[in-house]
Amino acid sequence: MKALVVYYSRTGTTKKVATEIAAALDADVEELREKADRSGKVGYMMAGRDAMRKTPAELLPLQHDPSDYDLVAIGGPCWAFTMCTPSRTYTVEHKDALKKTAFFATAASANFAQKAVDALIEATSLTQVATLALSEKDAPGDISTAIAEFVSMIRSGQETEGRHG
C-alpha cells in the first residue's frame, strides 16, 4: 500500500504524531504550509476565527499528488472545536482524488480532537479506514500504542468508529 501522511502543525504537537504515523506506515509526508502567519498570540486568535468561519486557507504549493496514493492519512490540531483550517481546506479540495482516508487530530483533550476529526468527516462525507484523536498531554509522551492501533486499523482496511487517546 502506497501511503501519504498530510498534516498541519502550528506548534509541533501534530508534527510529532504525523511523523510517527508516517514512519509506522513507511509513508511519504506532506506538511501543509499556508500564506497566513499563525505564529504568536495574534496568529492563534486568527486561527480560531478562521476555523469558526470555515475560511479556506491559502495553501502553498504541494509536493505530492494525493491521487498517486492508495491511502492518505490527514491530520491537524483542533481549532475552535473543529479541524484546523489548512487541513480542512486540503481535505475538501482533494476529496475527489482520495481513494482511502484516515484522519487524526490533536487537541487539549481527546474529546476536542474527536470533534476535529468529525468536522473533516462532515465536511467531506468521506469514509475512513481509521481515526485517531489524541490529547496534547498524550502527544509529547509515548504514543506508540495509539499509533500502532491506528496503523493496524489502516492496514486492516476496515471502516472504524475511531480511537480516542
CATH topology: Rossmann fold
The total of beta strands comes to: 7
The percentage of residues in β strands lies in 15-25%
Which term fits the overall shape?
Answer: globular
Helical stretch count?
5
- Specify the biggest β-sheet: 7 strands, mixed
- C-alpha termini separation: 25 Å
Walk me through the structure.
The protein has 165 residues and is α/β, with parallel strands linked by helices. The protein has one domain: 3-Layer(aba) Sandwich (Rossmann fold). The chain has 5 helices and 7 strands. Strands 1, 2, 3, 4, 5, 6 and 7 form a 7-stranded mixed sheet that branches. A hairpin with a 2-residue loop joins β3 and β4. The longest helix has 15 residues. The two termini are 25 Å apart. The C terminus is likely disordered.
Task: Tell me briefly what this model is.
This protein is an alpha/beta fold and about 160 residues long.
